[in-house]
Specification:
- The complex is a heterotrimer.
- By secondary structure, chain A is α/β, with parallel strands linked by helices.
- Chain A has 11 helices and 12 strands.
- Helices cover 30% and strands 24% of the residues of chain A.
- An 8-stranded mixed beta sheet of chain A has the order 6-7-8-3-9-10-12-11, with helices on both faces. A 4-stranded antiparallel beta sheet of chain A has the order 2-1-4-5, covered by helices on one side.
- In chain A, a hairpin with a 5-residue loop joins strand 1 and strand 2.
- The relative contact order of chain A is 0.14.
- Chain B has an 8-stranded mixed beta sheet, sandwiched between helices. In chain B, strands 2-1-4-5 form a 4-stranded antiparallel beta sheet.
- In chain B, helix 3 runs parallel beside helix 5 and helix 4 packs across helix 5.
- The two termini of chain B are 38 Å apart.
- Chain B is of the alpha/beta class.
- In chain B, strand 4 and strand 5 form a beta hairpin.
- By secondary structure, chain C is mainly alpha-helical.
- In chain C, 76% of the residues lie in helices and 0% in strands.
- In chain C, helix 5 runs parallel beside helix 13.
- The longest helix of chain C is centred in the middle third of the chain and has 39 residues.
- The chains are: A alpha/beta, B alpha/beta, C mainly alpha.
- The interface between A and B is large, with 46 and 42 residues.
Chain lengths: 332, 329, 320
């Protein structure tokens, strides 16, 4: 397996109105192998969306990149020029967003919007070929009557259909990586099941990065999981490692706090307090104010990232079974 | 022995979309012929997807909107459309907690004053000092510090704001609390806190809940009984345990199997429904679920099934919902 | 589509009817006596009576109103009090001049205003945007006659680049020389009107562009690999044009009735100047005609604007 995307000590923050920079993503390290599906999970403000936008190079203007690299097939995306990034976006790496209602332009037909990426990245394609490709894509994502549907506008599509159209749009140039940012969150449960099913079928064609707050969606789609909290990767590993043997107190708490279809009516485990704001991140471990195992050094010093198993890493001061030497951030 | 505290009798709500110059009036069939009983001290969960009418139902019960037909009976009294009749009698015993605590709080009003508002408006407690003490008691009740009286909504996190919303709903000492998607906007780690708070308050204050949600696992966790709605109609109503064990209605089956579970076990065979939820403006004839049902027969498209009691306390609206064996043959 | 047009047209006709009715009665109830202007005291009493009869002024106001309406249906707007010419002829003489001015101003405002608005939106909060905003505020708040006199002083009087008034130098020249002469005369009045109109075009374009830039579909467009000019051209402009089109429509509608002050200052022989002259002459039939033109143009422009917006935005269903 070769590495498609690799985050190496990537840090970024926001510049506020007074010119001060607040760090959000801090030393992010993880990688996406070719042909795998990686889930990025976390709650609001954990930086999971900023992580995906960083790959796309679509960060808001107030963002300051503070260091590190994002390697795509070995070259740093952060060093690429505007035009080089335009070449990659939509062709090599594509993205689908949360709100199917607003992510499509209301004044253009679905067909136009799907074919657009093909037109830019392969300018020699004839109009007929683009039309054929659009219809093939619509069929692929399970939209009935694609010829007529391609001529329609977004407001004539239901939410689920729009999200399918978004997927068709993202996949038309057959990208190496598809990023799905909360792609099913706004959908109804039975419609979400349809879209998840579709994504599961399409995932063979490339790598997938699923950004979500829903661990169920991750369990459904992903091979590996990256758990983020307040801008840091607190734990990452295979799906089995994270769901069946979570180690970080946050991951454990998160799993225990979710009512599942099998849980009884005993009181839910709760993580005290609430998710911190970027302005009041803790100096040491950012989870420490809510952690029941918090030690003195947790408050002051950033915990080390430890390798506990083949591909299982935890960023915590606690000691775990199977823990090797502190994992060196520079050779993941 | 269960006593009925609130009862909906054939509640129906059509929203008039208005007639055009050259076309007849169109109606949204938001809630159609919904009857159920709410028992004292229970939590009745209502699940459904968009267009199911679950939020409209809540507003009908509260009298926030007028029903097209049907009645709401509270403790034996007909309170349908109470708003026009007598604002000071029954309704304060039924209160509502909304989804978005931020949108329902005025950003320029101190949260203490926001909680005090219903108390002073209904003159439950008189005297400035007594009201303040009462608000502080409420703040403590929902797990906030009394000192937070002076703060403004923007100083609170999502979970704290929802606690404020609950405190405000509790200010009139209601007997019934209707929670409309009350935890949907919250982060996972905070959602558990609020769910626990609901359960704790229920015991402490002997409350009865109607808990409306789209997240089946949350509704299952908190409810004693669950009502499954689809396009304005009750599809199945049973105790939580029985609903999940028997799942008589095909829609209930599909809904339960559609929830992505947090597990590494190979996932069970999932029922994936075809197509989209039809518009409540033109609901399908026959069974409303027939366009997406994987067991639909000819009769389903022609004849509208009635809500039948198939077992004590277990209601199903399906031509084939009699028992597990009898389905879909 | 046809149904909507029918509906809009009938609503429009009603609007026009109400507006001319109001105009008619306001004019009748003004505390001034048109007869005194119409009649030369040197005329004999018989001639006087004949004149009064000819203009229908001997009849009661409601009667005059019905005569007016009857004439309206047959396209007869009556005779001017002042020079006894048919009103319709007078207006048809003046209208082309106003339309010429209007066309130049609207085309220039859109051509110049939209790119500047887009630029300001792209540079939001930066120096260029602040400068543009300052100019726009100036353009919107300036008192037009003041601007007109300023231009007259600088370009016509001081530099003597352009004529001080009129639409051409009499006697009219032939062929190309005539058009050049008219163009030269049109520069200053167009420039004056342009200054205020371009400001609103810039303002509306800028604000709606900023709104559109924050839309999710713009992010989607970038994520497909489009560059900024393409995103603006294919995904932002069309959506952002809707408010700009609306103000332009309103602007055109009211301008047909004449930019009264500007046309008067530059002695431009358009409808605006006609209104000014007729007010001072208490020439009611002409005023009624001018206001009719104004009402019709506002209504027509509204319908056209709706059609253009429906064409731009597929969510607006025609005939729905």
């Amino acid at each position: 397996m070769s590495r498609l995307i690799e985050f190496k000590n990537y840090s970024m923050g926001f510049r506020d109105e007074d010119g001060r920079v607040h760090n959000l993503l801090d030393n992010i390290c993880f990688s996406i192998e070719e042909g795998t599906a990686v889930g990025i999970v976390g709650e609001s403000g954990c930086g999971k969306s900023m992580t995906s936008l960083s790959i796309m190079g679509l960060l808001p203007p107030s963002v300051v990149i503070q260091g590190g690299e994002i390697l795509y097939k070995g070259t740093d995306l952060l060093k690429k020029s505007k035009t080089e990034m335009q070449e990659i976006r939509g062709k090599e790496i594509a993205m689908i967003f949360q709100e199917p209602m607003t992510a499509l332009n209301p004044v253009h037909t679905i067909g136009f919007q799907i074919g657009e990426a093909l037109k830019i990245h392969f300018p020699d394609t004839s109009k007929e070929d683009i039309q054929k490709a659009v219809i093939k894509q619509l069929e692929l994502v399970g939209i009935p009557n694609p010829e007529a549907r391609a001529m329609q506008y977004p407001h004539q599509f239901s939410g689920g259909m729009r999200q399918r159209a978004m997927i068709a749009m993202a996949l038309i140039c057959q990208p190496k990586l598809l990023i799905a940012d909360e792609a099913t969150t706004a959908l109804d449960v039975t419609i979400q099941a349809q879209v998840l099913d579709l994504m599961k079928r399409l995932k063979e064609s490339g790598s997938l990065m699923v950004v979500t707050h829903n661990l169920g969606v991750v369990a459904e789609l992903c091979d590996e999981v990256v758990v983020m909290y307040a801008g840091r990767v607190v734990e990452r590993g295979s799906l089995e490692a994270i769901l069946d043997h979570p180690l970080h107190p946050y991951t454990k708490g998160l799993m225990a706090a979710i009512p599942t279809m099998t849980s009884g009516d005993e009181e839910l485990y709760t993580i005290p307090g609430s998710v911190p704001n970027i302005e009041n991140f803790e100096k040491g471990c950012r989870f420490s104010p809510r952690c029941e195992y918090c030690l003195d050094k947790c408050k002051d010093d950033v915990p080390p990232t430890k390798q506990v198993d083949d591909r299982h890493y935890v960023q915590c001061w606690l000691t775990f079974d199977g823990e090797g030497a502190d994992y060196d951030n520079n050779n993941s | 022995m269960t006593t009925t505290i609130l009862e909906a009798k054939k509640l129906t709500k059509y929203f008039d979309l208005g007639a055009g110059l050259f076309r007849p009036s169109k109606y949204v069939h938001a809630v159609e012929d919904v009857s159920f009983e709410l028992y004292q001290s229970e939590t009745l969960g209502i699940v459904g997807e968009s267009g199911s009418g679950k939020s409209t139902l809540a507003r009908l019960i509260l009298g926030l909107i007028e029903s097209s037909s049907g009645n709401v009976i509270y403790k034996g009294k007909d309170i349908t459309g109470w708003k026009r009749a007598s604002i000071h009698q029954v309704p304060r015993e039924i209160q509502m907690v909304f989804q978005d605590p931020y949108a329902s709080l005025n950003p320029r009003i101190k949260i203490g004053d926001a909680i005090a508002e219903p108390i002073t408006a209904h003159k439950v407690i008189k005297g400035h000092k007594a009201v303040r003490l009462e608000v502080e008691r409420l703040l403590e009740l929902v797990g906030l510090q009394p000192e937070m009286y002076e703060r403004y909504p923007h100083e609170f996190s999502g979970g704290q704001r929802q606690r404020v919303g609950i405190a405000r709903a509790l200010a009139l000492r209601p007997k019934v609390l209707i929670c409309d998607e009350a935890v949907s906007a919250l982060d996972v780690s905070v959602q558990a806190q609020v769910l626990n708070l609901f359960n704790q308050l229920k015991k402490q204050l002997n409350l009865t809940y109607i808990f409306i949600g789209h997240d089946l696992s949350v509704v299952k966790y908190i409810s004693n009984r669950i009502m499954v709605m689809y396009l304005g109609e009750i599809m199945e109503l049973a105790s939580t345990k029985e609903l999940f064990e028997k799942r008589l209605h095909p829609y209930t089956q599909a809904l339960i199997s559609a929830v992505p579970e947090v597990t590494t076990k190979p996932s069970k065979k999932r029922i994936i429904l075809e197509g989209d939820i039809p518009s409540p403006v033109n609901p399908p004839t026959g069974c409303r679920f027939c366009t997406r049902c994987f067991k639909a027969q000819d009769i389903c498209r022609k004849q509208h099934p009635e809500l039948k009691q198939v077992m004590p306390g277990h209601y199903v609206r399906c031509h084939f919902g009699m028992d597990e064996e009898g389905r879909g043959k | 589509m046809g149904r909507l047009l029918l509906l809009r047209t009938s609503k429009g006709l009603l609007t026009i009817f109400v507006s001319i009715t109001i105009t008619f009665f306001i004019l009748r109830f003004m505390p001034a006596d048109p007869i005194s202007i119409l009649i030369d005291p040197k005329m004999g009493p018989e001639v006087q009576a004949q004149m009064i009869r000819r203009f229908g002024l001997d009849k009661s106001v409601p009667e005059q109103y019905f005569i007016f309406l009857k004439g309206l249906v047959t396209g007869d707007l009556g005779l001017s009090f002042k020079n006894q010419q048919p009103v319709i002829e007078i207006i048809m003489q003046k209208l082309p001049w106003t339309l010429l001015l209007l066309f130049v101003v609207v085309v220039l405002s859109l051509l110049v205003g939209i790119p500047i608005g887009v630029l300001a939106a792209r540079k939001q909060g930066k120096f260029a945007d602040k400068l543009i905003n300052f100019m726009v505020t100036l353009g919107i708040s300036v008192f037009l006659p003041f601007l007109a006199f300023g231009f007259l002083y600088i370009f016509a009087y001081y530099f003597k680049l352009f004529p001080t008034g009129g639409a051409y130098t009499p006697p009219p020249k032939q062929g190309l020389a005539y058009y050049l002469d008219v163009a030269k005369h049109a520069v200053l009045p167009s420039l004056t009107l342009f200054c205020s109109h371009v400001a609103s075009v810039v303002l509306y374009t800028r604000n709606s562009m900023i709104d559109v830039f924050n839309e999710d579909y713009i992010r989607t467009a970038y994520s497909k690999g489009l560059n900024e000019p393409m995103v603006i051209r294919y995904h932002a402009l069309k959506n952002a044009m809707i408010p700009t089109i609306t103000v332009t429509g309103l602007m055109i509608g009211t301008m047909v009735g004449g930019a009264v002050m500007t046309e008067t200052i530059f002695a431009w022989p358009g409808v605006g100047r006609l209104i000014y002259d007729s007010v001072s002459a208490m020439d009611y039939p002409v005023l009624q005609g001018a206001f009719l033109i104004l009402a019709v143009s506002v209504v027509v422009m509204n319908i056209i604007t709706d059609l253009v917006i429906a064409w731009l935005d597929p969510r607006i269903k025609l005939g729905g």
